[in-house]
Structures are given as structure tokens and as C-alpha cells.
Amino acid sequence: MTASKSHSGPAGAAQAPLKALRSMTGYAQAQATGRGWTIRISIRSVNHRFLDLHVRLPEGFEALEPSVRQTVRDRIRRGHVDVTLRYELSGPAAVGVNQEAAAGYLQAANALREKFGIRTEPDLASILRLPGVIGPLAAGLDSDLAQVEEIAGRCLLESLDKLDRMREQEAAALREEIAARLVSVATLASQVRALAERARPAFAKRLESRLKELLGDTVLDPARLAQEAAVAAERGDVSEELARLSSHVRQFESLLSASTDVGKKLDFLLQEMQREANTLLSKTPGTESEGLHMTELGLEIKSEIEKIREQVQNIE
Q1: Is the Cβ–Cβ distance between 179 and 295 less than 8 Å?
Q2: Where in the chain is the domain with CATH 1.20.120?
Q3: Which of 14, 46, 72, 308 is most buried, taking the most CB atoms under 10 A from its CB?
Q4: Residue 251 has pLDDT above 50, yes or no
């Protein structure tokens, strides 16, 4: 038998994953042809929290399922993955009659005719439609299942290679969009930092003015005023949140450039980034112009992080 050009190796052979970011969405197909038959394998994958693998094989190919599953697990870490193997006969082999099975049905039919005195002859067309009479292994491949597995294995590896290329192309587009949004988060965070620095002296003056309004002619203790201003400023200090947010952005960028199988790590970082953004918003100083502007910037940061999360959901 001859097979179409594909990667050699049995279905169970482990292949080292390529060092590239991959999407969880893709489709690929490969086929191998022989004398009177064709094996076609298609793989479809979509995003999923874990690896959810479904394998569909024709009758008679059940023995291949363990090696097919292991090969896919060696190459794919996450996603809902459907693997379908089709075995098609062509030419004279397409008839694929299992004569032993047909003879068994015919013998059973004749036995019933004799027992009950039925004169009607068995219908050949009906016998051919019975289970097992025409099947994928009726062409004689069941006598050499090892060869079938070897050819199917090469076909599977070829389809996985095609799937990886498609997933890497889609991930490259995702990386560009995510990188642009990370730049936006970093830029917004810098604006918040600059605004917070400018707002600190103005906030202290407003605090002093407010206290004078409340206390009237009462003389303010400068030390006590400074202490209260320091406490209020500490409550509104967002430098720690901004520092952690910047650190998370750098880690995120590093993971995007590193390798495959980073989707869960990216998702965790996004949770931490969202937490820092929420804390930042809770510390914005009141309803003055600086506070309102910081709130606006914080909401934009949260929006960018959420958009990044939508893209990361599709990264392996």
C-alpha cells in the first residue's frame, strides 16, 4: 500500500511541541490513500478550560483509539477537540463484502425457512444491508491492523501539524491585539500616577480649607493637621497598586513572547490586574476634578483588561 506524503511515525509517538503561542481554535484535515481505499482524518478545536477530547472512529477501528488519544494529548493541552477518522473504499474494493458475515445471515434465514415452511427466497439486497456485511475492514485490512495503525498515525500527525500552524497564525493576530491593549493599560496607569502626584499638594490644601470651614475661628494645630493630612493621603495613595499593575503588565508581555501553553497563567495575571484596578478605583480622592479624572482613567484600565481577557480565553 502507498500513502500520501506525510510525517512518519506511529500514532502513539510523542512529538515535542513547537515553541510558539497557540490559539485554541482551528481546523485541519489530512488523508492517506492506498490501493482501493482512503483514510481521512479531520481535527476541529475550539476554546475550553481544559482538554475535552472526542474521538470518532469507524466500525472496526476501535483498537486505534488509545494511540490516537495519546498522540493528541502530547500535542494539545487545552480546548474542545474533535478528531474524526473516515475510512472510504474506492474501485473494486468499495463493494467490501464480508462473505463470512453474509453467509451466516443467509444460513440463519434458510434455517428459519425450513423450520416454518417459508417458501420465499432470502432477499440479497436486504442481506447486504445487514450490519457487518459491508464494512470498512471487509476489504482485508483487518488481517494487517498494524499497517492500518501506522498509516493512520502518519495521517494524524500530518493533520496535527496543519492544526498547529493554523492555531499559531491565529495566536499571532491575538498577540498583536493584546500587546496593543497592554500598551494602553501602561499608558493609562502612567497618567494616573502623574495625576496622583499633582493632586497630593492640592488635596492637602483642600483638607486644610475644609477643616477651617468646619472649625471656624478655632486655631488648628499644625502638627495635628499634618498628621491628619498624612493619614488621608495614605488612604488615597495608589502608588502600590500602580507598581503592581506595571509589574503584571511586564510579566504578561514576557509570557506572550515566551512559548506555548500559557493561557492559564495569562488568565491568572488578568485576575490580579483587575484586582489592582478595583483597589485603585476605591482610593480615588473624592469628587474633585483630579478624583473624577482618576476614576475615569481607572474605568478605562478596567475596560482594557476585560477586553484582553476576552482574547486570552482563546489562548492555549
Answers
A1: no
A2: 170-312
A3: 308
A4: yes
